[in-house]
Design a protein that fits this description.
10-stranded mixed beta sheet; binds alpha-D-glucopyranuronic acid; Rossmann fold; two-stranded antiparallel ribbon; 9 helices; alpha/beta
Length: 404
């Protein structure tokens, strides 16, 4: 933000007004970053409800049997990479259990989810609290933790707004988390050391093979495999939550694995909820330069040619239909293009309307701190910075109460 001072002269008095003017462009990695709505180029989004053969999709059957699988394949091929579906075996080992955690309010289980393929294995470590007050299998909020492991501290010595476990438990939900590094370390030199080089080394040679985000999404599905075996949780009512790079992952995992009953994508930005073609904030070019190891190699060819991408991110949101999907943005997070995320949700609407013809959304971006909830679609634009915090969690929990 640039601070400009203006001197106003009125009725013989001098008023000094300090106006905070948002910068319209920035420089990053040798590129100009656009923050000016006026210079967003005109663009045409790829058609959501038209099959690759040009057939209009007007019913659920054609959507589910033809168009939805086509869109998944387009994202696999051009953006996130193909996710191998097979592995040799999976085992669940409870490594720690505390039946009266959180002062008796919750039952803690730490579970090592070990997956083998061709003689090698990886372990995804799950932290799970289930509410003691409920006798029924509990619906769950599962966080993909892309920040420090201390944010999901099972001892609760450290508490964090990023994963306010007590608040979720007190709302009647189970709360769970795994850390992305168990599947693929989050840096460009080590990302392959995990799911990729141990279980599926062949994908590392493929231009359309998955990379870090693919591996994280794969791990979320292995946690879902575990949930289907644990009677304390209701695996049919699992909301997958991710922030930023975790939010991109949550959308991709929810798109591929329809066992996730709801998806929450917080400030997910470029190659998450935001439309690539707007070229506002972080672009495809910049994300490929800085975080190329999140996406497949084919995605690099669109860095300078975004309009050639056969998808845009509204199609990813559409893949959640008819399940509830909640998208958030923050005012100080222009890098993630809040308006571009909202427009993605609006442009995903035709897929949701195949299931609920009454569903509409305001075409204008909602005002700050005024969430828009319409049937299974939730969106809010809150004040503050790029984050996942208690404001976000409490809104999402309230939204889930009648939908998850
Ligand atoms: C960087 C990156 C974003 C990402 C964010 C995060 O800012 O450019 O694409 O969403 O990190 O994960 O926090």
């Amino acid at each position: 933000m640039k601070i400009l001072s203006k001197v106003l002269v009125a009725s013989g008095l001098c008023f000094y007004a300090t106006l905070a003017v948002a910068q319209k462009t920035d420089q990053f990695m040798g590129e100009i970053v656009n923050y000016d709505e006026e210079t967003v180029p005109s663009y045409e989004l790829p058609a959501l409800l038209k099959t690759n053969k040009g057939r209009q999709v007007s019913n659920i059957g054609t959507w589910e049997k033809v168009r939805r699988p086509e869109i998944i394949q387009l994202f696999e091929e051009n953006v996130y990479g193909y996710t191998p579906k097979k592995f040799d075996s999976i085992r669940y080992l409870v490594t720690n259990e505390v039946p009266d955690a959180m002062g008796g309010r919750a039952h803690l289980k730490e579970v090592a989810i070990r997956v083998w393929n061709k003689g090698n294995s990886v372990t995804i470590n799950l932290v799970l609290f289930t509410p003691n007050k409920s006798r029924q299998p509990a619906p769950v909020f599962l966080l993909i933790n892309n920040r420090g492991k201390r944010n999901t501290d099972p001892t609760r010595a450290m508490k964090s707004e990023f994963w306010p476990a007590e608040m979720v438990i007190d709302s009647g939900y189970a709360v769970a988390a795994f850390h992305v590094s168990d599947a693929a370390p989050d840096n460009k030199t080590d990302y392959s050391h995990g799911v990729l080089d141990q279980l599926y080394p062949e994908v590392l040679q493929q231009a359309n093979g998955m990379k870090a985000i693919g591996a994280w999404a794969w791990a979320a599905s292995r946690v879902m495999d575990y949930f289907t075996t644990d009677k304390a949780v209701n695996a049919k009512r699992v909301a997958l939550v991710g922030h930023s790079r975790g939010g991109k992952t949550a959308l991709w995992a929810g798109a591929q694995d329809q066992r996730f009953a709801m998806v929450v994508s917080s400030c997910s930005g470029s190659t998450g909820a935001s439309l690539a073609r707007r070229k506002y904030g972080e672009t495809v070019s910049l994300i490929n330069k800085q975080f190329g190891y999140w996406f497949n190699d084919n995605y690099k060819q669109f860095s300078k040619n975004v309009d050639a991408l056969p998808v845009d991110q509204h199609m990813l949101i559409a893949l959640m239909a008819p399940r509830p999907v909640y998208t958030t943005n923050a005012a100080q997070d222009r890098w993630a293009d809040p308006r571009g995320s909202y427009l993605s949700v609006v442009n995903a609407l035709p897929a949701f309307r195949l299931y609920d013809g009454q569903l509409t959304l305001p075409s204008e971006m909602p005002a700050l701190n005024e969430p828009v909830w319409r049937s299974v679609i939730g969106y809010h634009f809150r004040q503050g910075k790029h984050d996942l915090n208690v404001y976000d969690w409490s809104a999402v929990i309230k939204f889930a109460q009648t939908r998850l």
